[in-house]
Write a structure and sequence with these properties.
Low-confidence stretches: none
Number of strands: 0
Number of helices: 5
Shape: elongated
Order of helices and strands: HHHHH
Largest sheet: none
Oligomer: single chain
Distance between the termini: 42 Å
């Protein structure tokens, strides 16, 4: 299962990077057209805001988690015994899974409720794909959180990965 998730994550992270590239090019062309030719691209801001930013953020969630890139506040953990630390790590991991499930259910409910929304009045483009991107991104993150329950004990969960210490100089 994790091999399949890793492949899906790789595809999603590549799409996220491509979305950033498209967003940069699209915004640059729009700004150049607006200020040099007085001809902006109509709907460029809406497409960037409603599609490209959502793809960039939500498809990168699982990549950031899987690589231990999220901020962790651990300054109190050194005062606890290893047994208490392990218990707290399990509690945090389980709460994170439950929170992820709530987020997936919430965004899915929002998606169903807004199935007929369009990009704006000028373009008759549905927003459903953008909502589905959010569902997929949060679902991937939640799956990784759930699967990492088995790695909490050995410290290899994405929430508790130890940072590499810089080499001594």
């Amino acid at each position: 299962m994790s091999k399949v998730l890793n492949r899906i994550e790789r595809v999603l992270s590549n799409v996220s990077v491509a979305s950033v590239l498209v967003m940069v090019c699209f915004t640059t062309i729009d700004a150049a057209g607006r200020y040099l030719l007085n001809q902006p691209i109509h709907g460029a801001y809406a497409v960037t805001e409603k599609y490209l930013m959502i793809i960039t953020v939500f498809f990168a969630f699982s990549y950031g988690y899987h690589n231990g890139s999220y901020i962790r506040v651990t300054f109190l953990m050194r005062y606890f015994s290893p047994r208490v630390r392990l218990s707290l790590n399990y509690i945090v991991q389980i709460l994170s899974v439950l929170y992820g499930i709530l987020l997936v259910l919430g965004i899915f409910t929002t998606t169903v409720g807004n199935i007929n929304l369009n990009l704006n009045d000028f373009y008759d483009v549905p927003l459903l794909p953008a909502y589905l991107v959010a569902v997929v991104g949060l679902l991937m993150l939640t799956l990784y959180l759930f699967l990492d329950l088995r790695h909490v004990k050995d410290g290899k969960s994405g929430l508790f990965v130890e940072e590499e210490k810089p080499p001594a100089t």
